[in-house]
Amino acid sequence: MFDEQAGLTGGRKAPWPTAVLRFAGGRTRKDGRPQVADPARAGRPRTPGLPRPVFWGGAVVVVALLVVLWQWYRPTLVTVPYGAVETIVLPDGSYVTLGSGSQLRYRPFAGRSVRRVVLTGEAFFMVVPADKPFVVETFNARVTSGAARFNVRAWPEDLAPETAVAVERGRVDVAARRAEGAVTLAAGQVTRVPKGQAPGAPGVPREERPLIWREGGLSFADQPLADVLHSLERRYAAELKVAPEVAERPVTYVNPFPASLEDVLSDLCFALGLHYRRLPAGGFEITPP
Hints:
Blueprint: E1 23-28, E2 34-36, H1 52-73, E3 76-79, E4 86-89, E5 95-98, E6 103-106, E7 115-127, E8 134-137, E9 141-145, E10 148-154, E11 162-169, E12 172-176, E13 182-185, E14 190-194, E15 218-224, H2 225-236, E16 240-242, E17 250-255, H3 261-272, E18 275-278, E19 284-287
Parallel strand pairs: 7-8, 16-19
Antiparallel strand pairs: 1-2, 3-6, 4-5, 5-7, 6-7, 7-10, 8-9, 9-12, 10-11, 11-14, 12-13, 15-17, 18-19
């Protein structure tokens, strides 16, 4: 008969404590002899694992935190197609009216020191008051304000790329991103920031009316003809071509109520002494006389 105290030693004193020699839950081996616990593992404390509800609860919390962080870092991109104008509401309640072909990118404002947006194109901002500044970044300028209403135009692919700012209400600071100098604009003032240069001195527009595009008007002041045609392409969603020898002709043109693209081209060509023709595949081309 197998004696638990004697174990496998045949009645001799075991070299290890007898308390560690236990049958393995009454199980037997294939030969019918009882299975004995491994002395090398006997007496080791069993490492307890986490209960399953606790483990899955922790996993859910981690996933939720990752989702929140992703939402906080993920930028929102608004793109307006050619021929359209769109007004959006930012996370702080500010309104932005975006012109045709424009893009606006921003991240959630919560937890950040500034309310920052990045603009490519043209937009009118109606900024609500808050305890942190509102910043509009373009390819070459930084526009900073509190509660204000102002317009920003910045097309980096233009023949004469610049950022133009016009203020309707409030005060706005304008600085170049890669050049020295900054100016402060009050209501009714404008400035331009040519690529690679400092902002121009604040002034009052004489011929240009930079805000009438919101009501469907057109306004250009001393801009190259090629840039004016790019603006008309976005506005009317039409292809426009210009002969290279006349692409840099300066244009000053204001039309609060343009009837059609062809009427605008007729006005421009009459003023500049040029011709335009309709292209077989659609659109128009401006040529010398």
